[in-house]
């Protein structure tokens, strides 16, 4: 499976722009209130099946770098799982209980304030 160029052009570009606008607002709000803000990115099941490795990652990294925001990239952790489908609600992009526990452990290891 490959993430479609046509789908990205039709949906992804606009979605990335909207996401960046929202992230700028969140980052500004956090800065104004001295709240730490780390950007966490994770793959959807279709991205784990894709040879393109997740097209949405680069814009996230570019935004974070330009904004001085740390990134926690969960793509490698999920890709390392042999049974990754068992971490998602079937037919959905959201995690099930096992997925939430997995992510919580990764975040606990990464977030130190």
**What does the largest sheet look like?**
2 strands, parallel
How many helices? The count is 5
CATH architecture classification: 3-Layer(aba) Sandwich
Order of helices and strands: HEHHEHH
Strand content: 5-15%
Low-confidence runs:
none
Could you give the order of strands across the largest sheet? 1-2
CATH class, please? Alpha Beta
Euclidean distance between termini CA atoms: 39 Å
How does this model look, in words?
The structure is a single chain. This protein is mainly alpha-helical and 113 residues long. The protein has one domain (5-110): 3-Layer(aba) Sandwich (Rossmann fold), CATH 3.40.50. The protein contains 5 helices and 2 strands; from the N terminus they run H-E-H-H-E-H-H. The protein has helices at residues 5-32, 45-49, 57-67, 75-79, 97-110, and strands spanning 39-41, 71-73. A two-stranded parallel ribbon has the order 1-2. The longest helix has 28 residues, at 5-32. The chain is globular and about 40 Å long.
